[in-house]
Amino acid sequence: MKRILFPTDFSEVANNAFVHALELAKTMNGELIVLHSFDLPVVDNQFFPENYMIIYESLELSQFDMFKDEIPKLRAIAEGRNLQHIKMSHRLMDGDLVYNIKKAIVDDKIDFVVMGTSGSTGWESFFLGSNAGNVLNGIDIPMLCVPLEAPFKKIKTIGFTTRFREKDKKALKRVLKIASKTNAHVKCLYVKTDESDVNATLIKSWEEEFAQHPITFSVVISNEVTETILDFMLQKDIQILTMLTYKRGFFESLFHNSLTKKIATEYTYPVLAIPIES
Length: 278
Hints:
Blueprint: E1 3-7, H1 12-27, E2 31-38, H2 52-80, E3 88-94, H3 97-107, E4 112-117, H4 123-127, H5 131-138, E5 143-147, E6 157-161, H6 166-182, E7 185-192, H7 200-209, E8 215-221, H8 225-235, E9 240-245, H9 250-254, H10 258-266, E10 271-275
Parallel strand pairs: 1-2, 1-4, 2-3, 4-5, 6-7, 6-9, 7-8, 9-10
Antiparallel strand pairs: 5-10
Helix pairs in contact: 3-5, 8-10
């Protein structure tokens, strides 16, 4: 049974992502671990020597009360989608969000993380410098990033861009496992530019290796990589875009080009980030 970590602040953005997390759990025959992480403020106890512990205890209690009040709302969302049978457990942790997520991944043997982002104006800040972006840069398991403007849709088509590298193949096999659970089709795109060095023999070998899978390979000759990928996503009616992520620095370089900015401002797609070795 796959284990899916869902960090939440119980906002509208997070609740939208929760639906995606529920549906992923259903697809993967998995269970959800709901995590709410909060930071206690730094209080200089030399100014509050007598009330120091009272301040912290009251703050912790308020977080617990909020957590206790919000969990039934999540269960109501699950019931509304007839997914109340999905096993769900809960974690309330104080401290740094990124640290707590990493700890939960290890302690709870997590297979996927699902998080919400504020979408159009929030993607860039989400990936660059935000807690969620730091999580993406620091974990080595797949993470589904869901913008508010992306309500859940049945996954029929998954987009996958590739340069036909061996490391891409490993990630593609992971995507095919997910696709098999929903009878989805994977549509791969290679944008062949003037500087591309991939030859027809390599492409043919991939087509032969994956011939028995629900997958289509498309090669488009163009030097306009950004526009070609966006056109491909629209024409093929893709529900989820897969991005292969690298170690530190990947998202910093990603947001210096126009592709993801354009996706962020003009299109709303859930993004499945799959870490690979650089």
